[in-house]
Design a protein that fits this description.
Blueprint lengths: L6 H7 L4 H14 L9 H79 L3 E2 L4 E2 L16 H6 L4 E4 L8 H19 L4 E5 L5 H6 L2 H4 L8 H6 L5 H7 L1 E2 L11 E4 L4 H14 L10 H6 L2 H6 L2 E5 L6 H9 L2 E7 L2 H19 L7 E8 L11 H20 L17 H6 L4 H4 L14
Parallel strand pairs: 3-7, 3-8, 4-6, 4-7, 8-9
Antiparallel strand pairs: 1-2, 5-6
Length: 442
Amino acid sequence: MNCAYQPNFRSALQIVSQTTLEKTVLQCKNQAVAYIPWGDKMDNIQNCTTWFCKLQVAVQKDLTISIVAAVIIGLILLALGAILRKFIWPVISKWASRKKNLIIENERLDRKLKRGFGAVAQADHGTHKSEGSGLWLTKPVTQTKNYRTDLIDSIPIWVIANLKGGGGKTTNATNLAAYYAMKAETDCAKPVLLIDLDYQGSASSMCVEDNQQIPGDSFNSMATDLVNGQLTAAELVQNAKPVRKNDMIDGLPLDIVPAYYDLALAENRLMIEWLFSENEKDIRYQLANILHDPLVQSKYSRIIIDAPPRLTTACIQALCASTHLLIPTILDKLSSEAVSTFIKQVKDLQKAEVCPYIKFAGVIGYRPGDTDEGRLTNAERQAIARAENTITDALRSYQESEDLYLKDAKLVYNKFLSIMCGEFYRDSKNFWKRRAHEQCIW
């Protein structure tokens, strides 16, 4: 049989598998003859048709096996996919998610560390290093909503501050609060609020009993809750302590927020949490958020804040919440130089938009001991004059009027202060110029 003579047979060979094709070709070769008579062609065609049928059967068997194998493999793959989705993929997904979260957390931690250490980092000048500008200038500055408008429309909020101790902050704060409370009583005005933000609590000791100042076990003082944001405006208005009554003072319209030593712990914690966090809440404006609330603004006619002698969390909150700053100081060399430094720090805070709207109410100096000018020695007068010049020079150098040094201000005798301090009148005259008709007026 000549296989080349049958084109249909050759076409069939092209679609079979390699193994079947090789067998068929071999069989064709074995049956090939040099010359096939015409009479035998029909037999040859019949034989080829038989072979073609055999090839077709073989191809069908191979296709059936291939299809079955493909189906089996598909089912196996589907089973493996189901197992992968149910058991293996959740493990892989969880691992990938955990790895992603770790990467995000590490990046967040890096940002926190850079922010915290950057706030207290030294300034590199190439040849040397110096201390930086201060942590309270840390960016970004996130003021409370309507901060500027609230300050402009606010009742007077005075912060009595100086970074040097013993300058008369508490004395001036309590006297001012007493004077304005007495004035409010006379004018039938709203009461005055005194806020003690010095953890030593001297103003609190003057104004309230110990059981109202010292918090119970596992409780915070009222000033601590105010600074750390745990006291709302409504709670402040409701829970502020009235000044204690006595024979000389009855129903004075003066409330106080007392402080105790736990405030120092809260200040440190809040500062560290703020430095090493990405919280959008700016701790510098916590107090402003409360004091600018309409409930507080409508309850009181004036707020006086006794600040600590350090630029702590409570002090920076007081500066950001207040409309005016009054700086009391002793008229000596060391204290007057401290005033100059403090003014510079406040100016830096204003420039950095931390407390840009606070106004200087003035610098008030006093002399411990007798205030009578006629009883001062020449050396004392010269020392006082030098201290006053240092203060006025500082005011001019920072573009403030030298008239803000309240030279004519006198701290005078005040019954309220004497009684609150537990001093007798005969003792008080040794420290304060005794003019019973004046009440800390400047």
